[in-house]
Amino acid sequence: MPVYGLTEELIFPPPHLSNRDGILAVGGDLRPERLLLAYSMGIFPWYSHDDPIIWWSPDPRLVLYPSQLIVSRSMRPVFNQGKFTFTMDEAFREVITACSKAPRKGQDGTWITDEMLEAYCELHDLGFAHSVEVWEKDVLVAGLYGVSLGKCFFGESMFTNVSNGSKAGFIYLVRGLEKIGYELIDCQVYTDHLSSLGAVEISRKKFLSDLAVSVPKPTWRGKWAFH
């Protein structure tokens, strides 16, 4: 399959035209309208500092259906003992900045470029991008962020500076989203970490079918809080 070059026109080729690696297109920009269109079509940007913007729609896709969350026995004391406190959308820029600096196994540098960071902060200001903050006393020790459309949350990245921090934040998010009727959490590509929490690989065709049901539903914009 060819890789498509984007212009300023707000359009993407169909996701099934991605190449074997999952790359669909290059170029374009990170304005909010394009990012939201991309997510609604099952496409996301992922590239390094020296690359053009690269747009992906991998097959298979890693997802978590909230009702299938797995909480291991070892995590239960973390919640029962109140080791952490959790907030949402209180420190979005701090979370994404920490994610950009977190070391990744097998990766040299970060894919969260300055351009990406500012683009997602703009999405946050518009009420579409959200963060979970994990605090130990008054210190931000872990967190994650992503984009919400309809009843789908598109996870982007997480970080932790302490044992079980990001896992606790993710569990907190999934439990809260399940209670308010979210149907799908996009985890993008396989990791052992997310698989251990209940994420499964599905075909791109199935993923796009799920999006077609979940994304058109009303989007919960603005500051998030689970009560």
What percent of the residues sit in helical stretches (DSSP H or I)? 25-40%
> What sort of overall outline do the alpha carbons produce when their principal axes are compared?
globular
Number of helices: 7
Contiguous runs where pLDDT drops below 50 for at least 5 residues: none
What is the number of beta strands? 11
Average pLDDT over all residues: 94
Distance between the termini: 47 Å
SSE run = EEHEEEHEHHEEEHEHEH
Largest sheet: 7 strands, mixed
Q: Order of strands in the sheet with the most strands?
A: 6-7-8-9-10-5-11
Provide the β-strand percentage band: 25-35%
Q: What would you call the structural class?
A: alpha+beta
Nearest-angstrom radius of gyration? 17 Å
What does this structure look like?
This protein is of the alpha+beta class and 227 residues long. The chain is 29% helix and 25% strand. The protein is built from seven helices and eleven strands. A seven-stranded mixed β-sheet has the order 6-7-8-9-10-5-11, with helices on both faces. Strands 1-2-4-3 form a four-stranded mixed β-sheet, with helices on one face. Strand 8 and strand 9 form a beta hairpin. Helix 3 (92-101) runs antiparallel to helix 4 (114-125). It is globular. The mean pLDDT is 94.
